[in-house]
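Lab notebook, bench 4. Continuing the backlog of folding jobs that were queued last week. Each job is logged with the same field layout so the records can be merged later without manual cleanup. Today's entry covers Intracellular proteinase inhibitor BsuPI domain-containing protein, a 252-residue chain. Filled in by technician R.K.

JOB TYPE: sequence-to-structure
TARGET: Intracellular proteinase inhibitor BsuPI domain-containing protein
LENGTH: 252
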Amino acid sequence: MLRIAAVLFMIFASLPMNGSGANAEGGPEVSLSLNPGPESAEIKVGLINSSDQAQVFEFPTSQRYDLIIRDKSGEIVYDASAGKSFLQAIQYLKLNPGEFVSWTESWDYETASGRVGEGSYSAELSIPLKRKGETHASVVLRDKAQLDVPEENPAFRKVEVSGENGVYEVRGEAAAETGRFYYTAEDGHQVLAGEAAGPSDSKFPDWSPFHFKINIPEKSLPENGTVILSLYEKDKEGRVIHTYAAVLENFR
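JOB STATUS: finished
OUTPUT FIELD FOLLOWS
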């Protein structure tokens, strides 16, 4: 039960943290959603036309937004536009009433000096909008959100999952202190795949690749819920340590 609780805490802690970039005038609205995972954060930028008329927006280049993430001291640790090239030509974006468009970024928590530490970081989004044909300067819509970066897992990394409907493959690298790790699959209410030892030739502290399959009977899958993979190792006393949680599949 303690392991299940720990896994659920990690999953709930990684739920998207949404900003609040609503425009009270009923025009375009922006949104910022951050979903931190064990090794990277998914960042979603949204723009919606909440008016009752179609809108055509004009951008001076192919860049749609500015997004930066700062640490507690105010230093920039991530800049979404850094190192990217944008088409230097006027671009247009048409949104019908109620139409929503989104863009997705991914940040691996890395900076020029290495991975950032565990803790809270602030994300700042800005989108300059000017309607087609207008001559005045763009109106900049802004949003903010908090990103909680988890502690780096010392035993598991580069974990990738694939598959659907109860048949999954898991790949990654492990550096278990004892040379052995374990895994289960759960849906938050019950264990769907009992504890099994993962294949690994790990010789700590070296990282070693692993690959295994999980098969869950279709009748055991939730109709509405999330199948969660839990990777972990055990200390000399048999206590679970270094838990790594990953989503195998969402059912809605």
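OBSERVATION: The chain has two domains: 28-149, 156-251.
SIGNED: R.K.
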